[in-house]
Task: inverse folding
């Protein structure tokens, strides 16, 4: 085991006994939602995973230690600390560990730590991707590189609709990452169920997902698998409303000179404001939906 890694007793026992475990990120706690809604949501997501037959492993870096499985107190700490906690991508891990600091894990770092711990399935909200205007800014999320190299199944509600979805799909294809639609032939766009872009393959059950992932592992493929699970119909937002809010938020971010790792938190927070909080509720519901699919798939993988 990696000398910098701490696995909680519950997660360690589950892994040793071959029981299903689902990884969860912590950026959504510290940077994705306001306190106390962030902590309430994190605990509800963990409960949803338990209710569907798996053990949750929320991942973060605390005091320079990579943590696979947080206590309720640690989740509360991250929630209260908010953006005081660094948003930790791959490039930040060594510095945060060496300094004994705290880091909220993105999709990238959650995948890395989950793989270190032996966890194969990870539930999140939406992945990062190719930002609009990336042909000049080169702003491309490290999530896409990690999906191309780390063998973890990521269950999400598609790429965040603040991104260039077409270029994101092209990048994933180049990296050899299969994009799977769960019950859909079309890439979901986070707040909305449809984007106009197709997925590589459609599956309709956790059994199919598990079989596909086992085959990928059995073939010795080094990368991950992206499962895109549409937000439940009753929580999906009107495409015109969300697109207008995103366009305004992007324009404001450019006026303010916001770039890099600050871009996504700014855009998501601004979209929440512009939609009167509706996008926050949608965000919570899609994460719960993804946690359900991930837990059921993890259970199938363990059979």
Result:
């Amino acid at each position: 085991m990696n000398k910098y890694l701490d696995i909680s007793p519950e997660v360690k026992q589950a892994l040793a006994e071959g029981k299903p475990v689902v990884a969860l990120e912590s950026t959504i706690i510290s940077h994705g939602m306001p306190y106390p809604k962030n902590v309430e949501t994190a605990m509800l997501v963990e409960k949803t995973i338990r209710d569907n037959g798996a053990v949750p492993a929320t991942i973060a870096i605390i005091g320079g230690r990579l943590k696979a499985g947080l206590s309720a107190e640690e989740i509360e700490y991250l929630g209260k600390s908010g953006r005081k906690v660094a948003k930790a991508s791959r490039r930040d891990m060594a510095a945060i560990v060496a300094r004994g600091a705290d880091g909220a894990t993105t999709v990238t770092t959650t995948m890395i730590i989950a793989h270190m711990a032996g966890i194969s399935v990870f539930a999140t909200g939406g992945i990062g991707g190719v930002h609009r205007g990336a042909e000049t800014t080169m702003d491309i999320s490290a999530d896409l590189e990690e999906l191309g190299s780390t063998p973890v199944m990521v269950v999400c509600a598609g790429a965040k609709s603040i991104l260039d979805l077409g270029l994101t799909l092209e990048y994933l294809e180049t990296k050899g990452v299969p994009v799977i639609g769960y019950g859909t032939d079309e890439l979901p766009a986070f707040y909305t169920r449809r984007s106009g872009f197709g997925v590589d393959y459609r599956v309709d059950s956790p059994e199919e997902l598990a079989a596909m992932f086992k085959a990928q592992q059995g073939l010795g493929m080094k990368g991950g698998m992206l499962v895109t699970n549409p937000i439940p119909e009753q929580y999906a937002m009107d495409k015109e409303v969300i697109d207008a809010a995103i366009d305004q938020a992007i324009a404001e971010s450019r006026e303010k000179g916001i770039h890099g790792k600050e871009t996504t938190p700014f855009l998501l927070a601004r979209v929440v404001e512009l939609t009167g909080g509706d996008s926050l509720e949608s965000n919570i519901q899609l994460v719960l939906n993804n946690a359900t699919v991930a837990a059921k798939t993890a259970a199938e993988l363990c059979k």
In short: The two ends are 25 Å apart (CA to CA). The CA atoms of residues 208 and 297 lie 9 Å apart. The longest strand covers residues 55-62.
